[in-house]
Amino acid sequence: MARVLSQTRLNRRKFLAGVAVTGAASAPLAADASNAVAPSLPPASPRPSALRPNAVIAAAETTTPQPSMQAGGIPNSDFMVDVIKSLDIEYLPCNPASSFRALHESLINYGGNKKPEFLTCTHEESSVAMAHGYFKIAGKPLLVLCHGTVGLQHAAMSIYNAWCDRVPVIVMGGTDLDASKRPPGVPTFHSAQDINALVRDFTKWDDQPVSLQHFAQSTVRAYKLAMTPPYEPVMIALHAGLQEETTHERAKLSIPRYVPTAPPQGEMNAVREAARLLVAAEHPVIIADKYARTADGIKCLVQLAEVLQAPVIDQKGRMNFPNTHHLLQNSRAQALIKDADVILGLELSDYWATVNGFIDNGDKDGVGLQESHIKPNARLISINSVQLNTKSNYQDFQRFQVVDVDMAGDAEATMPALVEAVKQALPSERKAAIEARGAGMKKAWNEARVRTRQAASYAWDASPISTARMTMEVYAQIKDLDWSSVGADRQLSSWPTRLWPMDKHYHHIGGPGGFGVGYNLPGAVGAALANRDAGRFSVNFQPDGDFMYAPGVLWTAARHKIPLLSVMHNNRGYHQEVMHVQRMSNRRDRVASLRNDIGPVGTRLENPAIDYGKLAGSMGMWSAGPITDPGELAPALKKAVQVVKAGEPALVDVVTQPR
Amino acid sequence: MGMIALGVAAALNVGQNGALAASAEHGKTAFVQNGCWQCHGTVGQGSIMTSGGKRLAPDPLPWETFYAFVRSTNRAMPPYSGKILSDGDLADIYAYLQSIPKPPDATSIPLLNP
Prior knowledge:
Chain A contains 23 helices and 20 strands. With 659 residues, chain A is α/β, with parallel strands linked by helices.
């Protein structure tokens, strides 16, 4: 790891070292010639805490840097930019940091700040979550640069969400490995032997390149691994010295060509066995979670469901199946699972919880009620790529569930073969029964639609505003646009995915994966960025607790003109925890202490209430609210939609019912 | 539990309709203070996420059934003993639920029929 630093090149590290020595030698001085030779003075104490720069340092910090005088050499980080550009990465959401300053400089000056374009972020958690949301619309990963220690610790929660959600993000963390040469103090606080260790449990692969050729190979490898199902984040440690050095051997360096890996497919004998079971079943049920990676995945699942006229339960980890199709039967999920003789699970995050029930009531010595929801003779099929990449420490693999036909493969890649196998296995005498099943599904779908609308009418005029009313007030303003719902809707009783007609792959993008709070807002901004490039309108229902983790991402949206309508689901609390503390109080036969709030102490965001409109406005966004009267929603939303259509973000703060 | 419920109903001199004699206004306050709103919404509308889609109002369960469920449920909802929610407050909550009007028919709401 030798560092070849030109003697004639401005060397910031030596200047910093000089500052330290100077500080040891003298009292604070003006920037004049008197301390220009200070590095040669002997140390003394006490050391002042800060120094005025000497003339050389002052000139270096305040004047335009001169071009490198190394004839024929190029900055190593310029080559790194060539490698990054070979991967066609569009954006670089980052919070700047000294440990990748050389690459930063090359990206904007050598790379022209295009592909990737630097997006200024105010928190690394936001950077990674933006990349997360972006991928779920664009299908392409982004690169995130972060400080190797403090920045990576900020980013870690978002990386875990991406891991659980099977989303690729290319993370590079700057670190200065050479303890004898790196500046003391802050840069050393921010260095570590192995920064990747921090996230190794929830990244697919990582490396710490020690040469430029190594960097090229590892970066292309990282991208390739991240983009092979199961998609996952990857991590590259970026040595500061390697970035800042100069190479005279550019011509000898090569950049490996990126060739996508064919996704792993379920083994064909298992596919045929699954088809045989599905065709013979009287009550087959298809359940999809993180299944559809592309629009084709949705079409293929529709084909399978139609061939079998089998009900589909969409767990909404992705937009898997059109809710306008009569075979989408989410409202009858529990009944269908209980009655099923064959269940096909497609990329389920939690198969156990899909076919078992758990009630957190403290029964059975505190374990709670656990009960099977399926018939004893029900046959279970699974197609899931995640078991190809399971790690031990974090428990995102969930409880163990025995299945009868288990395929370690990508469900979307397997689906065409399964559809063909089902068609081939389908005897003509089964067709009448299957048609009759389809007629029953149509009737059930129509009845469920009526029930859902009636359920939405309850609390229609209430204040705080019902989440159903808010959902449909928004839809009235956007229904004629090419819209995309970019936030998770589970917290608001899933009204958007229950009430809005959704049949395009970008109509919703699922949730955070790991349920780490703080994903939704930056995830929505990232998805809106991808939608902006596709000419779509993005709308996000934004929970208040999630908002407050890192609201600065709204400034990023305003700064980079990312059009996004955020509608606050402002229930003024960490509502899940409101209910948890109430549950524990009841279990212990104690009154939950509220003090001056309307929920248990420590769970509410009130007294004072947060004004999200003002907060958004302070970051350069159009905003309205807080709105408590449902009658005032329409005019505010109408204005907000106009702002977003003009290319800017906007926020409407709505004080809502809890769920 | 049925006997207990009937006993309480008799003691409060309330029945299916008798709970109306309790205070709906105080019941609304008690509904919030005791955390009922957390899962059921402020007007008992419920949620598929927190109440299995079940609604408390309008047309709440018969008083005896309602009382027994609140006191003894061992399912998803945590039970409320008399120590933490008095019979009087529970009767008031019931009165509040009875006072909640029916919503308009969904077919008459233009936003629900886009």
